[in-house]
Design goal:
about 425 residues, alpha/beta, D-Maltodextrin-Binding Protein, domain 2, 2 domains, five-stranded mixed beta sheet, four-stranded mixed beta sheet, 19 helices
Length: about 425
Amino acid sequence: MLGGKERRWLFAFLWLAFAMSMQINPAQAQELKVALMVFSGDQRAAFNELSRQFEKENPDINVRWLAYDEDAYKGGIERWLSKNEPADVLYWQAGERLLQYVRQGFVEPIDDLWRAQNFDADYTDAIKDTVSWRGRVYAVPYSYYQWGLYYRQSLFRRLGLQPPQDWDGLLKMCGDMRKAGVAPFTIGTHYHWTAAAWFDYLNLRINGLAFHRELTSGLASYMDPRVRDVFEHWKTLLDKDCFIDHKLHREWDWKQSLPLLYRGHAGMLLMGNFFSSTLPEDLAADFRFAPFPMINPDLPRYEEAPTDVFLLPVNSVNKEPAKKFLAFIGRADVQAALNNKVGKISTNLRAAHGDDYFIRVGAELLQSAAGISQFFDRDSPKAMADEAVRIFTEFMVVRDIERTQAALERARRKHY
């Protein structure tokens, strides 16, 4: 039987244990609503694991995911930003898709958080630029992926070829492949957006990132001679038979065109790194990645890298916990744990990238890029992008530069 002294010690211990349990009880924790666009079960599982780590480090905060599919999310984000029904933190995409809401005053600047976390040491200027406007930072980038050329190294060895480094090398490769009975590039344009990758990269390599952004933001005319230069280069590729037959690529989506690449009937594919997840297991080790070749030697190298971010809405009601979450998602260890599970590249320079070949070479490419664009349909308003990608696809068939420029200019005047 316990004496009085022992009972007092036991009571004090139990009271302390109870008090501590109340401090970390999820029912007593502050709820942080984080809206997320869900693409896959693996992504959902990775974010659930991430929230458990965040809650362990911040026991006074309970993360509540507001998860939506792509259509529902894109349909809801402007309502969440502009009306009084906010999430505290929102997933979104860098570049123009972010800046359109920044300019409307819907997104809180986070310069104080960026400085406090010393993120300038963790992110390249190129990636910081994708979340900045007028010298202020508006989101934390956490994930991106590269675009470029994918090919079977065994086919290139058999043909005695190397991936093209410049414009002359690209044209020579096309000629050598055609002589060997191989289509240099496969593509599927049934849904049109794949053609935009060719416009983007040709424009980035010929005219640079600043002019590309002027075009996609509606500030420059598509009748500009610099745009004609892009289509003249593209027409040269078409005239030299660098692509599979247009009757095929207009019928196929991009995945339907892949067997030509697998079987060595086509040499290369211009695509984002989501391509690597589609590779058959017995062929994956034979595939390699190369950057899009340089064209204008006076330009630095710019790359396409669609970038995912989290932002703080102006109408968030829990801004301090939200900033803790943003600081957390910006960390190298957090990004590595997340992106290595979902097959993307961490934007934090200090994050470990694992053993995946495509992730490693993609990280090297993007971290050394002079600047980053997002992709035509992310950098342009949706109505403009929807019309422009159809015009790009038509150009690959009719090859009429004047008609194409005029159609794009009409679309620009209509949609901006």
